[in-house]
Amino acid sequence: MQQGFSADAFWQFSLEHYSKTGVQAACLSLQDNYLGNVNLALLLLWLDSQNMPLPPSRLNQLQTALTRSDKLLASYRHLRKQLKPSVSKPEYEQLLGFELLLERSQQQDLIAKLNQQPIPHKVDTVSPTGNVDAYCQLLNVPQSLIAQLQGLPG
């Protein structure tokens, strides 16, 4: 019997990947300029790193699973940005910390949805960026930004 994906392992991958040079800026550009979901992109990168391609139907299911949490995160992010000029640095850090909790909760939702279906099979011949490429193509993201998302040197 196959074990499901671990939300903790995905979170650790995300923290490590996000800290790579250029990745944070690329993620924010994906979010702000292309209306992409950073956690979904990170999940797809994580699956790519494990050579686990998703069929388009699974990608659609994951996108649908984000509807509720995306609205919550967008509202909170907007509020945080509005409050930034009127709160102290420690208060703003608390706002960022809470947003990080919301992000982690969204990642847990993604993993729960992913684990509802059979685990994708590892393959040897898949493009190492197939999942994130497919998602970014839906959003008309340029290749240069995709490379940045992947943490590749510019």
Explain what you see:
With 154 residues, the protein is mostly helical. It has one domain. It is built from 8 helices and no strands. The chain has helices at 7-18, 23-34, 38-49, 56-65, 67-83, 89-115, 130-138, 143-149. The model has no long low-confidence stretch (mean pLDDT 92).
Q: What does this entry show, briefly?
A:
The chain contains eight helices and no strands.
- Helix/strand order, N-terminal first: HHHHHHHH
Helical/strand content category = mainly alpha
Based on CA atoms alone, the radius of gyration comes out at 16 Å
* Arithmetic mean pLDDT: 92
Q: Number of folding domains?
A: 1
Tell me the major beta sheet.
none
Task: Give the SSE layout.
Elements: H1 7-18, H2 23-34, H3 38-49, H4 56-65, H5 67-83, H6 89-115, H7 130-138, H8 143-149
Pfam families: DUF2390
Protein name: TIGR02444 family protein
InterPro entries: CHP02444
Provide the descriptors you would attach to this structure in a database record.
0% strand; single chain; mainly alpha; 69% helix; 154 residues
